[in-house]
Each structure stands twice: as structure tokens, then as C-alpha cells.
Amino acid sequence: MRYAIIGVEGPHDQAFVGKVLKLLGFKDFREEWDKLDKLTRLDMSKELESKFNKFWHKFIPKYPKQGSLYKRLNMPSILFTESLSVAIYEGEGSNIVTNLDDILSANSEYQTNLAAFGIVADCDKSTPDRIVATYSNKFRSYFPNFPLNPGVVDTNSPRTGIYVLPNNQQQGVLDTLLCECGQIAYPAYMEKASSYLNEFSQSDIKTLKWKNFDQQKVLIATVVSVLKPGKTNTASIADNNWVSEQTQQQVPALANFIQFLSQLLEVS
Questions:
Q1: Whole-number Å distance between alpha carbons of 136 and 144
Q2: Is 225 found in the same domain as 146?
Q3: Domain coverage including residue 7
Q4: Domains in the chain, number
Q5: What is the rounded distance in angstroms from the CA atom of residue 254 to the CA atom of residue 236?
Q6: For residues 264 and 122, what is the distance between their CA atoms, to the nearest angstrom?
């Protein structure tokens, strides 16, 4: 079994990367676990247990986190094939560098036994090159060949790379890419949601204190409320067709991201 870590900033990114991996043929450990009945779970099948290898046990968070009974525990998503197990670690936004650094420095096996290590980051407040520099400066101490350019996969062992959303070139966030996907997957809903949001004046937007790319986030959230009333964007990204064979074929930015992950993980 080979192992890979993909660090992301938030739960939406975690769901997005997980959906892409499923498109590439990976199975989700949580979904496979939920398929088991209660008796089977008590005597968990060795085959499934092997997919959640002891290699990832250091990632299991301990409760309470930092003494807080209400602090959310960040359990990575684990997806796997017959030969590769991938942990998608959600690093609490801008804390991702510090949190991953803590994990890597405390666990030498995550430095020496990985087949791949990658980062997926937004570009809402800087430029892609500056985003990459932040990560490269930190993670080159563990992986000397960590790329200095976005969207590039270094093929030394372990394979390393960073993808800066939405397309390694422009400023934006995951929702910027999802808006392109939504125009293919849900054109009618996207049009109706856009029409509704266009009724908000600049005065309204100023009062609401929307920041850069918030309008794209609101647009996606509006369509999500139609697709899965009462559910989060995370649930919709995981369950609906924002990421699909159709959007992969018709949204170049998504196709490029999928190609990046394929190269990073050596899968097709």
C-alpha cells in the first residue's frame, strides 16, 4: 500500500478533492464503513481495516481538542484504491501551514514513507506565485523538491505539488471554479439564482460587507439550497454533480485540476 497526503484549507475543499478522487476510481472509507451493519462493524472486516491503515492513526484527533469541549475535530477524509491510500487533511484555513508542519515534524513516517504530498489552496488575497512561495518555504524542509510553481508536479519521490484555485493563474476561490461547473451541471438554477442576486444593489452589498468573491460564494450557496434544502455546500459538493464526467469534459479548469491530481498520485 502506498500513501499520500493532500492538504486543503477547508471542508468545502476537502469535499471537492474527495469527489474528484471518486471520479478517478477511489472509494471513500467513511462510505464503505457506513455500508456495514452494526455487527459487522464490531468485527470490522480486515480488508476494510487495511484501507484505514495504522499509518493514518496519528491523524485521528483526540477529544477534547485543545481543552475545548465544543471545538470541531478535523478528521481527514480517507479514500483508497487497492494500492493507494490518500488522506485529505483539512487544515483550518490559514492555519494549514502550521498544522501540517506540526504533524510532519512530530511524525517522521509522514516524511519518509509518502508516495505523494500535495496542497490545494485558494487565491483570494494574493497571487498564485506568492501563495506557492508560502508553502514552498515551509515544506521544502521536509520535501526538498517541492515545486516553486503552481500546478506543477515534481516526480521525484515523494511526488509533490501545489494547485492554486481556481486555475493557477487568476485570483479566486473554489466557488469561482464551481460557478463554471454550475453553468454546465445546473444552468437553469444558476440563471435563476443570478437573477435573484442581481436584485441586490451596491448599497445592499456594502451594508452586508461582502468581500472579494463573496458574490460567487453566495451564488453557489443559493443553488445548493435548491438542490439540498437545509444542507451545507460541503454536502452538495460531495453528492451533486458539480464534479462529474460532464463537467470534467466541458470545464477546462476542472479538467486541469483532475489532471494535476492524476499526475500527483500516479493514477489515470
A1: 9
A2: no
A3: 2-171+250-265
A4: 2
A5: 17
A6: 18
The CATH number linked to 92 is: 3.40.50.10620
- In percent, the amount of the chain with pLDDT more than 70 equals 93
Same domain, 200 and 135: no
Shared domain for 216 and 86, answered yes or no, is no
Residue 37, pLDDT above cutoff 80 = no
- Cα 161 to Cα 135: distance, rounded to the nearest angstrom: 10
Amino acid at 48: L
Instruction: Report the amino acid identity of residue 137.
Output: N
Q: Are residues 70 and 101 in the same domain?
A: yes
Q: What's the pLDDT score for residue 93?
A: 85
Cβ atoms of 147 and 161 closer than 8 Å: yes
pLDDT at 41 over 60: no
Q: What is the mean pLDDT of residues 132-153?
A: 96
pLDDT digits (tens, 9 = 90+) for 53-78: 678 878 877 777 777 787 777 789 99
Q: Note the pLDDT of residue 64.
A: 78
**pLDDT tens by residue, 106-126:** 888 888 899 999 999 999 989
C-alpha cell read off for 243 = 464534479
Cell of 93: 484555513
Same-domain status, 45 and 111: yes
> Residues 202, 122: one domain?
no
- When mean pLDDT is compared across 92-96, 116-120, 137-141, 149-153, the lowest value belongs to 92-96
Q: What is the DSSP string of 143-181?
A: -TT--SSTT-EE-SSSEEEEEEETTSSS-B-HHHHHHHH
Claim to verify: residue 203 and residue 87 sit in the same structural domain: no
- Cα–Cα distances in angstroms (integers) from residue 13 to residues 87, 89, 100, in the given order: 13, 10, 16
One domain for residues 231 and 157: no
Alpha-carbon distance of 250 to 183, in angstroms, equals 10
